[in-house]
Amino acid sequence: MSPNPTLPPSVTRLIDALTQLPGIGPKSASRLAFFLLRAPAETSLTLAEALRDLKARTRLCSVCFNITEDDPCAICADPLRDPGLICVVEEPLDVAAIERSRVYHGTYHVLHGVISPINGVGPDDLRIEELVGRIRRSAEAGQPVREVILATNPTVEGEMTASFIQRKLAGLEVSITRLARGLPAGGDLEYADEITLRRALEGRQRL
Amino acid sequence: MSPNPTLPPSVTRLIDALTQLPGIGPKSASRLAFFLLRAPAETSLTLAEALRDLKARTRLCSVCFNITEDDPCAICADPLRDPGLICVVEEPLDVAAIERSRVYHGTYHVLHGVISPINGVGPDDLRIEELVGRIRRSAEAGQPVREVILATNPTVEGEMTASFIQRKLAGLEVSITRLARGLPAGGDLEYADEITLRRALEGRQRL
Questions:
Q1: Most exposed residue of A157, A180, B97, B127, measured as fewest CB within 10 angstroms of its CB?
Q2: Is the pLDDT of residue A115 over 60?
Q3: What DSSP string describes A37-90?
Q4: Residue B3 confidence (pLDDT) above 50
């Protein structure tokens, strides 16, 4: 006998699928499923369509590895952005956070994670080699990158990743900076408010 | 400028769709969207399919109004269940909760809500007339319903709904019972543990 013999398979399947999501346990999954059962059909269908499109339409920008529908992404393709300035972040949501501060007009480089031995994430799992290649190619093309801002989170893993990248870039002719210590230690860049982020960007210091 | 100029439309649309769900704010919607972006494509597609199937495959049982894929539902169609005993509950999840207690072998009647003047829910919005009709038809068919257990939640609205149904059934030859006061007052039937529910069922009292 299944744990919920009275729930039809289609409801059980939705509850199971929702339970795979982070922060959603079996109880909230049930609540969500029954909310959707009662809501107009469009609510489920809109969500279903958005989920299908998510993977079908998005890719990584071949320049900065941000999530995008067009390659290169809107920021890399924007002639008003300074390609001589690269802000290195852990995740696409960090790009969104920095954009909201509206003081930054350079480009980005999204690592898609941090070095984390505990979670089995090494430097090769991140887009670090691609960053080195990008800086080298820019120099060869006569449009050198002047500055790399290491904007990983102010956590142990973020600092470790920043140090690793700093060593990797040691031979290249590029200034390396880190966001100013306006960021609360142990915090998460994505949750920082706009003023803190703005101060951190303006007060960035040469490493 | 949109609030997230750097997020592609397909990601923004998913975040918007997730934000429509109860208990999911813009921040957790973003987290979920980025979890799905990083997860294997199956995770999103399984969820998308489950959402599509939810409305396409489920209907209400024409006898008890529980959510089902087949009509009548598995409980109403089960010859081992006693059709002379009807347990009236607010929601399909309450059926699942009572089934887990494993002491009940009658049938159900799902109201799909409670009388709630504040939320604009009146008796006509619930399956109360259908309950009366069901009891009448059973009597006419020579298989009378002996007992109706009013298992609405022990909340003000649940009690109000139970009294209303009790008055509605006054003229009919049927015992009306209410779950015993083993249930904590102001609580929610769906969250009751199995022992509390079992005691409440066993100690039910004639109204």
A1: A180
A2: yes
A3: HHS-HHHHHHHHHHHHHHHHH-EE-TTT--EESSSS-HHHH-TTSEEEEEEEES
A4: no
Statement: residue B31 has pLDDT above 50: yes
ipTM score assigned to the predicted complex: 0.71
Q: Where residue A38 falls among pLDDT bands split at 50, 70, 90?
A: confident
Q: Residue A147: which of A107, A180, A197 has the closest Cα?
A: A107
Q: Worst-scoring range by mean pLDDT, A19-28, A93-102, B77-86?
A: A93-102
Alpha carbon distance B64, B77 (integer Å): 11
Q: Hey, are the CB atoms on B31 and A9 less than 8 Å from each other? A: no
A185 pLDDT above the threshold of 80:
no
- Rounded to a whole number of angstroms, the distance from the CA of A97 to the nearest CA of chain B is 8
Spacing of C-alpha A113 from chain mean position? 8
Chain B residues 7-66 within an 8 A CB cutoff of chain A? 7-11, 13-14, 16-18, 20-23, 28, 30-38, 41, 43-58, 66
Q: What are the chain B neighbours of A10 within 8 Å (beta carbons)?
A: 50, 53-54, 56-58, 69
Q: Measure Cα distances from A201 to A96, A128, A175 in Å.
A: 14, 22, 15
Tokens coding B104:
């009940």
Residue numbers in A near B56 (CB within 8 A): 10
The top-scoring range by mean pLDDT among A105-119, A184-198, B27-41 is: A105-119
Chain A residues close to B16, C-beta within 8 Å: 50
Q: What are chain A's domains?
A: 9-57 (1.10.8.420), 63-206 (3.40.1360.10)
Q: What ranges in chain B are assigned the alpha helix state H?
A: 9-19, 26-38, 41-57, 74-77, 92-101, 128-140, 156-168, 194-202
The answer to whether residue A130 scores a pLDDT higher than 80 is: yes
Question: What would the DSSP string read from start to end of A129-184?
Answer: HHHHHHHHHHHHTT----EEEE---SSHHHHHHHHHHHHHTTTSS-EEEE--TTSP
